[in-house]
Amino acid sequence: MVTDHRSAPVWAMIPCRAGSQRIPRKNVTPLPGLRFGLFERKVRQIEMASMIEGIVVSTDDPEIVQAVDHLRPSLSKPVQVVMRPERFAAAGPVDEFVGYIPEIMPDGHVMWLHVTSPFFDANCIDRSIQVYFAKLLEGFDSLMTVTRVQTFFWDEGGGPLFDRSKARWPQTQDLPPVFASNFAAFLGSRAVFLETRDRVGHRPYLEELSQLEAFDVDWPSDLQVVSQLLEVGLNQGI
Prior knowledge:
Blueprint: E1 10-16, H1 37-48, E2 54-59, H2 62-71, E3 79-83, H3 95-104, E4 109-113, H4 122-136, E5 142-149, E6 178-189, H5 190-196, E7 204-208, H6 220-231
Parallel strand pairs: 1-2, 1-4, 2-3, 5-7
Antiparallel strand pairs: 4-6, 5-6
Helix pairs in contact: 3-5
């Protein structure tokens, strides 16, 4: 008998720690049309995604709490704020925090979504969930979004990390690909995440994203790019 995984709801989880080291107030810095910036944009995207049941926000930031209070009346989906324990508020390895997240999530499937992926929109969210359910039937137990990388890697000693025996400079498309996690989304059941204490299961499916979908805000210049793109109307429909 095939299990109908679609009968269980999918919950979005947004982690938002205060005190970004590279970009002060990164999550809530205003953007064109968005009083609460990247956080508001991600909430609006989730609101428009048809396959998400509701949102859980993990934060230690009073400005995020304020943003939720401001946005909640305009949302049809429930939003729950869970204040992050102080031990998870500092920058550093996040393994313990990752293991804690399924404990605060409702039963069903959990989709980690980061506000720093502003162009991973509602269509992307629904597409990833559909792919995830299809891949569960093929034996995968989770999904994470990745970026395909085919380029000329060298180690710190100047040695090539690609085969130069046949051609010193082969076409990049002929190089073996590697896949980098871009942190736009992680998706799996709460049960799997409770078992692995991780953001992925034992056999994650790697969903490749386009360069725009995978765009990540990590530096001040990245936030400026997002602001400029929104100013001219790119992806303004969320």
